[in-house]
Structure formats: C-alpha cells, structure tokens
Amino acid sequence: MLCALKAQIDWGECTNPPPTAKEYRTVMGGCVAARLASSLSVEAVHTQHCILAGMTAPQSKQAFLALVQSWPLHRASVFEAVQSYTSQWPGALWLAVDQSGLHLLEPRTRNVLASCHYSDIVNYTPSLSSLMVVTGAAGRKASKYIFTTSQVSGVLVESHETIRSRYSSPQNSPQVPALKCVAQAPQIAQLIRDYTRVLAARKTEAAAAHRKKPASASRPTSILYKAPPPTLHC
Length: 234
Hints:
The protein is of the alpha+beta class. 38% of the residues lie in helices and 22% in strands. The protein has helices at residues 2-11, 21-31, 34-37, 42-51, 57-69, 160-168, 184-212, 215-218; strands at 77-82, 92-97, 101-105, 112-117, 121-126, 130-135, 143-149, 153-157, 178-182. It has a 7-stranded antiparallel sheet, with helices on one face. The protein has a two-stranded antiparallel ribbon with strand order 8-9. The protein is flat, with a radius of gyration of 25 Å. The termini are far apart.
C-alpha cells in the first residue's frame, strides 16, 4: 500500500495514463528496502493503486505519512548488533534508539523484543566495537548488557538540533541526516546522551513552570468555604 500511495501522489489516477512497469519499479525502490521491493509484484502495486482512485494528492500524502507513522519506531535510528547475554533473544539483533529509549528488534522485522526507557538506564559505556548498557529501575537489581557493533561503517548521523526539533513540534519536517563513516557504538552512546539531555531540559522547564504557577490557581475551592457577606454602604 505504501508504494501505491506514492504512485497516487506522483501520477494521480492509475488510468491517466497508466504507469509503466519500469515506473512502478522506480516507486517501489524508493519506498521500501531493495530486498522487499524485489519480492513485490508490479501487478499487486497496480491493483492497489487503482483502489485509490478518487484520492487527491493531499489526501494521498496524509495517508502515506499516517501509514509510515503507524509504526512507533518510525523515527528511530537503527543499528545492527550482536549479543550473547541471553538465549531468550537471537544473537543478531537490531538496536533502535529513539526519543523514548532503546529497543531490541528481530533483524529485518518490526518485531520489538524488548524496550528500555532512558529513566531505567543507570550507565552506558561505548568502545569502538561494543556498547555496555547497565539498567535498573528503582528497587530492582541492576542488569548489564553488552552489544557488539560494527567497528566502522556508514550510518545516518543526526545532529543534536535535529533531535531537539523532534520535541519542539511533531509537525516540523525532519532534517535529513548526513551519511558519515563512524564507529557505531560511540554514535549510539552519543544519541543516548543527546536524547537524555533534551528530556532533562524539558523536565527542568516543566518544573520551573510549575513553581511559577500561582498556588491559588492549582488549589480547588473547598465545599465548606462560605463567601463573606456583602459590605453595607451607608
């Protein structure tokens, strides 16, 4: 459906004139990963495209974004990692980092195996090829996890300003990250650091705003309260 919506945005109705197979392949290659595009048929995309008849370009864009954003981790930065800590998880994983915390996924799927909020992270230490994360909520025993990552590879690098913009307004168009060759573990640690700084700043701002709020505005009137009698003027 994602490819069909993109076709509706680019060309409008499927019969005006009908896109060629090559054009559909171009759209499919731009919407999904190459391994998924190769398994899709042009006929299936064309059929779904025709179902969207009558949908305007703005409506198609809105539906396209809604479909992308239906996955909670659509804004996450995803890294390949390997773990040997527990047999409950596969050895090869995807480690996703977003504004809420860390998430472990089965490779090449959207299936989330486990998540950890930033408030539960006690410590984290990166090296060139691994990342150690220590977790432990209040009153719980701390757990240590070590993830082996690629030492140097091309990853999407996001600036601190890009991360900050995600919290300012969800309507803002995200900036395009730059592609650089960096060690993945330090990059993951930097993302964790930036996200936690933004969360801490927002928490501080909220606390300051709460302190400035007049006490009377937050205190409801008691049902036993009686208004004073009116003043008589002679």
